[in-house]
Please model this.
Amino acid sequence: MLQEIDQKVQQLMWDVQKRTLDRMKQSYDVNLKTSYKDLVTTVDKENERYLNQRLREIDPDAKIISEEGYGDQVNDLKGHVFIVDPIDGTMNFVMQHCNFAIMIALYVDGEPTYGYIMDVMNDKLYHGGNGDGVFVNNHQLNTPANNSLHDSLMVLNAGLTLDGGHNVREVGKQARGLRMYGSAGIEMIYVITGRIGGYLSYLKPWDLAAGMVLALELGLVVKGIDEQQVNVLSSNLVLVATKQVASDVLELVD
Amino acid sequence: MLQEIDQKVQQLMWDVQKRTLDRMKQSYDVNLKTSYKDLVTTVDKENERYLNQRLREIDPDAKIISEEGYGDQVNDLKGHVFIVDPIDGTMNFVMQHCNFAIMIALYVDGEPTYGYIMDVMNDKLYHGGNGDGVFVNNHQLNTPANNSLHDSLMVLNAGLTLDGGHNVREVGKQARGLRMYGSAGIEMIYVITGRIGGYLSYLKPWDLAAGMVLALELGLVVKGIDEQQVNVLSSNLVLVATKQVASDVLELVD
Model:
């Protein structure tokens, strides 16, 4: 049953990638959400309606949490819950036409079960979970080397770095280098492939859910900066990292 | 004469890309230069020796400035001067196997004349100058839209952002978003393609030379934060940006 859902959601991710690439060739509306730094487009909304409709066909009893408001009111993680980000990194989508992702996660009775991150412009679907491992398309990923902060590149949330809260600038200074890509999905991909040792950011459920499944499946650490396990529905400032980077970072942040 | 050199250097860029891709399949040494944040590999050195040798065949009277020490002692820009970066973004090359570039520029009697930036992993050569326009492979690029800082993503130097000098954090706060990719070549590509509105960083001659040719050819601004024209041999903190972003940023920095 779960494996059948997994196969169908993988196919859905390729279908939505193709739709998105086609849609980018036509014009679409761009609107501000909370500020001029927070955009939403017609494509976000169209993708979300499409994904939610297809997910309801695949798994009719599941609930859906999604970014743009077409999902269900969900207060707990009982049963099957899909968490959907129809375009992650909308600013990059609009300004760069690259460095954005589409993400779905399936949580079963609160357990991170399957995660899917589509790197649309690179034709790469990162997927896995449920003890099966993590794959990019058909190629299985290994657990990234357990490097220390000194031997790792870090991604830090831009606003937090500019404001200097939680002593995060010290994390940036001690890392081998600081990177910012502007899409949680792309940044999660960098961590699970070992290209970034740790990623610290404010993450909403749809930013976090898929990457959290894949990171945990690979034995990486997903923690709040209070060192507690993360609740995907109510996370705040989240660290996704190798064990050693997590230990090094959690000693520095306050 | 110059056009013949241009054709030969374009071919050289494709040759060195193929060598680099082949070389990445074998092992190579990684060494620290000035600190644990500053690496050099065997591939940097092999590429530089190869490029310099081929450039001497293409243009025997030219002088060569290059990062790893196999070039000439050059104190002025009289005649033909090639400026070579054999691997730009060596940290990314080592840690990410992507997001690095190979760059060459030709300055003639001090005039920015031809620039070449090879995005190795994406098979894309950005090249042009000398009034011919700027191309990615065979496709001509348009001048990026003259957006303001509020409507643009910015790349800021990571160390400067962490230290807070020159009021750069205010630039990051006013921009639509902050990005950091860790390679001057890749960051120059983002600016000349309009995906980033402005790039502010400390740039050595080999970091700056090729991107400066391409940016100027497209009518973008290349200035020091003292608002002076940049000398490619002795630049310090350099801004490459649309006219409007340059104006907005130069009002903010001190």
Summary: The two ends of chain B are 44 Å apart (CA to CA). The interface with chain A takes residues 36-37, 91, 95-98, 150-153, 158, 161-162, 169, 172-173, 176-182, 190, 195-196 of chain B (CB under 8 Å). The longest strand of chain B covers residues 80-88.
